[in-house]
Amino acid sequence: EVRLVQSGAEVKEPGESLKISCKASGYPFSSYWIAWVRQMPGKGLEWMGMIYPGNSDTRHSPAFQGQVTMLVDKSITTAYLQLSSLKASDTAMYYCARVGPGTGYQFDNWGQGTLVTVSS
Amino acid sequence: QSVLTQPPSASGTPGQRVTISCSGSSSNIGSHTVNWYQQLPGTAPKLLIYSNNQWASGVPDRFSGSKSGTSASLAISGLQSEDEGDYYCAAWDGRLSGPVFGGGTKLTVL
C-alpha cells in the first residue's frame, strides 16, 4: 500500500524558516516524482513544484520559484519542502503527493497535509 | 484567478445526476489529459478520475469524466450525501510547464 505521511502542524513567527517532511512507503521511492501543493485557508489547490527522488531533478511553479526548496533523502524515503523568510501569507495547508505513472501528471496518492501557521 | 475555470458551486438531491464543468485552453486541456480530485471536508484531496475518463483505484463508476476540445466535465450519478465536498479539475499546462488546477467546485447534496 502506497503511503505518504507528513510531519505535524507548525506554528512559526514571521521571518523564520520551516522544513516539512513527507515519508513515503509502499513503492519504489526513487521512481516517482513527489509534488507539493499549497492550499491557503478556504481556497483552492496550487501546485508549488515537484522533485524526482532518483536524481533530485526539480520543477518549480513560476509562482513559487525562488520561494521554496525541495529536497529528498533517499536513504529514508523522505521528501522535504523548505520554506524560508516566512510571512503571514504562507499560512496554509501543505500537501505532498505522488505523481502517478504515465504522462498525465495525476497525483495518485496524497499525504494527510501539514498545517503551517505564521503569526507573531 | 485559476488557469482552469470551474463553477464555484453545484448542487443536487440524493439520487440525481450532476455535472461539473472545467474550461481551459489549447495549452492545457486542449493538448493534455484531465484529472479530477475530490476533497471531502477536513481531508486531503483524493484522485477520482485521471487521463480524462479513467477511474482511480477504488472509485465507484457513479463518477465519470469526459473531455472535448478545451473543456472537460465530471459527472456524478446516483448522488449520495457523502459526495458533498469540493471537486477540482487539473491538467498539465505546456505554457507554464506544470500542472494547473481549477478553482474548485463546492458540491452540496440537498
* Largest beta-sheet characterization of chain B: 7 strands, mixed
Instruction: State the helicity of chain A in percent bands.
Output: under 10%
**Secondary-structure content class of chain A:** mainly beta
Mean pLDDT of chain A: 97
In sequence order, what are the helices and strands of chain B, one letter per element? Answer: EEEEEEEEEE
Mean pLDDT of chain B: 97
Q: How far apart are the first and last residues' alpha carbons of chain B, in Å? A: 28 Å
The two chains with the largest interface, and their residue counts, are:
A-B, 27 and 27 residues
**Uncertain spans of chain A, ≥5 residues at pLDDT below 50?**
none
Distance between the termini of chain A: 40 Å
User: Percent of residues of chain B in beta strands?
Assistant: over 45%
Shape of chain B: globular
In total, the number of strands of chain B is 10
Number of H/I helices of chain B: 0
Radius of gyration of chain A: 14 Å
| Morphology of chain A | globular
Low-confidence stretches of chain B: none
SSE order of chain A, one letter for each helix or strand: EEEEEEEEEEE
